[in-house]
Amino acid sequence: MKEINGSGNPAEGKYKIERRESSLPRIGVFGVGYFKYWAQFEGLLDALLAKQKVLIEKIEKNNAEVIDFGLVDDAQSAYDLVPKLQAENLDLIFCDMLTYATSSTFGTIIKNINVPIVLVALQPDKAMDYSKASTYMQLYNDDVCSLPEFAGVAVRMGKKVPDVIIGTLHDDPESERMIGDYCRMANVLHGLKTARIGHIGHPIEAMLDMHTDSTMLTAHFGVHIVQCEANEIVGNYSNKVSEAEVTEEEKRILSFFDTPDPVSDPISEKLKKEDLNVAAGVSVALKKFVEDKNLDGLAYYYNGEDQSETQLVMSNLIVGNSILTSSGFPMCGESDLKCCMAMFIMDRFGIGGSFAEFHPVDFKENFVLVGHDGPHNLSIAQGKPVLRSLKKYHGKPGFGAGVEFKIKEGPITMLSISSTYEGKFKFVIAEGESVEGPIPPTGNTNTRGFFKPDVRTFLTNWIKEGPTHHFALGIGHHAKSIQKIANYLNIESVIVV
């Protein structure tokens, strides 16, 4: 995702939304081989280690911290490696299939390590020169030879068959893409381990599909839910926000948004000065709150007494939340913690993650509007997002600035995290297309979502999987990668088609 700034040009503009700094995922790499080959074939071991160095360089290009554990070539070296892998707090491991290796180099590792392992078989030559072929050359290119053996041993050890990357070491865009995807999955897993997700209030009108046991979120995702109070933000707004900070924040907000005249919706107006002033003050207060609580995300909903300062502040988090969400800090309205987790996963995977639900269907053109009111991820907007003053927030208390835009045109992915009768989580995933066309000028996000085979069939199939009515919306087609994250977390998942 590109850095956002007020000029609309990634290279210009005084005001920028920069990604929040976070630590890199820790990825371990170890190679496998067969110790008997080294004395038989001079130079083979060094040639294999050079192959492993190339893989490490490919991984390091994907913003990851790589720990090289060298080569495992017999059972004892595999047993010796286990405690070293366990000590490094790894998020993902690549096993480099350098040549044939007996599964004794892998059995104890797959049995004792709970970190996801990916078997990488990248052959150095696209094909052997058969006229000059030798046993040495075969062993140098024997990357796939042990894959069936390693897969079978994983099953015998009571584990799932590891994911596999098969390709060539050089000039292979598909294997490069897969390595990048796994590094981004590692970034998701890394973020979940230590994330502090704030929670304020309760689901709006007791939406039963959204209620969530915070302890179960820790059990299944690793995150810690920080129970917060609305008055902590309201107090910042009242006592810790200066007029100079508000003025500067107003300029910053206006640099990111257009403020057009109203069109057809009678509850929308051109952005009013007083609404901008409140939104800017609340945005500053919110940033102070996030820093004080050391949060990585927030799900919130809080009514407050009618016409009170609490209601004013808590109903005007939308603009500040949208800016924070765009910087890598997912914010979810209506106090939906599960949707906040879906947004967090998409954000750390690098595909955005905006708060969404289904809006009216267009049966004439075969699409459904996908969007929501409240905070959204500006980093995946098509064009410059819009701010409108709304006389009322439909279904909620208060009034003020609303954020309106559509998701970038092109492929999109949806992730709903639901709960089952047994109290377990479930990923409901789908892919579609964001297509060009007008959206309602209502101060909310809306995207024209096209889904195969047709909108009626897709929605029927989606609903049958029991999703929550909220989901995270990201750019690109990444359903299979998100499903792998679910597998790593031992969470049920389904891709709706």
UniProtKB/TrEMBL annotation:
Domain of life: Bacteria
UniProt domain L-fucose isomerase C-terminal: residue ranges: 398-492
MF terms in GO: L-arabinose isomerase activity; L-fucose isomerase activity; metal ion binding
Keyword Cell division: no
One Pfam family matching this protein: Fucose_iso_C
Keywords: Arabinose catabolism, Carbohydrate metabolism, Isomerase, Manganese, Metal-binding
Record-linked InterPro entries: AraA_N_sf (IPR038583), Fuc/Ara_isomerase_C (IPR004216), Fuc_isomerase_C (IPR015888), Fucose_isomerase_N/cen_sf (IPR009015), Lara_isomerase (IPR003762)
GO BP annotations listed: fucose metabolic process; L-arabinose catabolic process to D-xylulose 5-phosphate
Gene Ontology annotations for the cellular component aspect, listed alphabetically: cytosol
UniProt-listed Gene3D superfamilies: 3.40.50.10940
Annotated coiled-coil segments of the chain: none
Protein name as catalogued: L-fucose isomerase-like protein
Provenance organism: Cyclobacterium amurskyense
